[in-house]
DNA sequence: TAGCCCATGTAATTGGTTACATGATTGA
DNA sequence: TCAATCATGTAACCAATTACATGGGCTA
């Protein structure tokens, strides 16, 4: 089964209050960037579909000097559909991870090349960890007393665990690769 | 830039020795299932493309009582293209993680529902950890002395770190959800 | 005898990104 | 004055899965 998760992601944002397609993109970029993303090419057609299926209603908000905002609100039917999806058990999904794939073919390049690749990969993820940290601080300040905050912090914590684990793996892997490097140098001499 | 990584994944398998499309699928399923997968719908057209571009050569192996095997071998040009990709730095990729997405909308369902979901998610990943363990033992026995072994173990270690981190997150998250549950019960009484 | 393994491939469909089109306002 | 932000949407394209088509041999 290949369900359209984007549809539920959008419906989920609507469940927290009426927003525009533009706003939805912003939420994913600014709060949930750590585990989700959506492009406009998905969001706008989905919003159209949701209102056609009676899962959301559209109203237009006029602004001066700026384009009109198309605001969508979730309907009772929409909320029901969302809840049904939320309690459905998640399925196992095999992601595609480029870093281990490249290392799987590591014999094709030099140990030095492999080391550079892992070092670069480590940098990417330590940057991500920092980003999560700043989102966390911002939310803790902005959302005091908001009942959503506790759930949002849990999703940020997911990113913290995932990225720290990768840093740990990088360090172990770099140590192993450097050990191999020393060994081959010894054998050469 | 939206590069075709499947092409390099297939080329990478060919770099380790001549194989058929069927074999390639098996390698991903039995050794690399932890970080990669390919469907026949991708593999066969890619192999066709590779031989058209001079990156692989095809030969046919006849078998009795079984269908012919179409064996592909990598060419020098193919090996060069693969190496170029292997040393290119990996890009940051925002995956889509359904579990934190659902938790992001956690307010829409009961704490109990959230707990069930996380418990189920935990089971999935502890199963995955076990799978990785058995692949590791099998490889250690089968591939003694093979220079690829060390690299393959590093990719398995990636899965170990990633999955252990998720288990840790699940435990923390379950504790937090249960604490919230107790608190709401107290408030009700 | 039902179902899985062997083995190759194509066609249909869905999922997702990127480019394009439009245009005013604001800040560096 | 250049770039960014605000704001909505479509069209073209690429990536990937699933279903379909074929068919013999093996095993529970």
How much β-strand is present in the residues of chain A? 5-15%
Strands of the biggest beta sheet of chain A: in what spatial order? Answer: 1-2
Distance between the termini of chain A: 58 Å
Give the overall average pLDDT of chain A: 95
Secondary structural class of chain A: mainly alpha
Counting structural domains of chain A, the number is 2
Largest sheet of chain A: 2 strands, antiparallel
Report the radius of gyration of chain A as a whole number of Å: 22 Å
Task: Considering residues with a beta carbon less than 8 A from a beta carbon on another chain, report the largest interface and each chain's count.
Answer: A-B, 67 and 68 residues
| Order of secondary-structure elements of chain A | HHHEEHHHH
| Unreliable parts of chain A | none
What keywords describe this structure?
homodimer; 189 residues; mainly alpha; Arc Repressor Mutant, subunit A; 2 domains; 7 helices; 2 strands; DNA-binding
Can you characterise this structure?
The structure is a homodimer of 189-residue chains. Chain A has 189 residues and is mainly alpha-helical. Chain A folds into two domains: 6-87, Winged helix-like DNA-binding domain superfamily/Winged helix DNA-binding domain (Arc Repressor Mutant, subunit A), CATH 1.10.10; 98-188. Chain A is built from seven helices and two strands. Chain A has helices at residues 5-14, 21-30, 40-52, 76-87, 98-104, 111-142, 148-188; strands spanning 56-61, 69-74. Chain A has a two-stranded antiparallel sheet. In chain A, a hairpin with a 7-residue loop joins strand 1 (56-61) and strand 2. In chain A, helix 1 (5-14) crosses helix 3 (40-52), helix 2 (21-30) crosses helix 3 and helix 6 (111-142) runs antiparallel to helix 7. At the A-B interface, helix 1, helix 4, helix 5, helix 6 and helix 7 of A face helix 1, helix 4, helix 5, helix 6 and helix 7 of B. Chain A binds a DNA duplex (28 and 28 nucleotides) through helix 3.
């Amino acid at each position: 089964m290949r369900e359209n998760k984007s549809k539920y992601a959008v419906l989920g944002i609507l469940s927290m209050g009426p927003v525009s397609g533009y706003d939805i993109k912003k939420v994913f970029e600014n709060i949930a960037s750590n585990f989700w993303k959506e492009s406009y090419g998905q969001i706008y057609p989905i919003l159209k579909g949701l209102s056609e299926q009676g899962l959301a209603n559209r109203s237009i908000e006029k602004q001066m000097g700026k384009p009109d905002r198309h605001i969508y609100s979730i309907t009772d039917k929409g909320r029901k559909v969302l809840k049904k999806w939320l309690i459905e058990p998640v399925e196992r999904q095999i992601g595609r991870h480029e870093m281990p794939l490249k290392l799987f073919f590591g014999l094709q390049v030099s140990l030095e090349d492999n080391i550079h690749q892992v070092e670069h990969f480590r940098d990417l993820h330590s940057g991500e960890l920092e980003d999560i940290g700043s989102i966390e601080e911002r939310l803790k300040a902005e959302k005091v007393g908001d009942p959503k905050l506790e759930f949002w912090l849990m999703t940020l914590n997911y990113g913290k665990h995932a990225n720290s684990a990768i840093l740990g793996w990088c360090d172990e892997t770099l140590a192993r690769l450097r050990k191999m490097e020393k060994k081959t140098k010894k054998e050469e001499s």
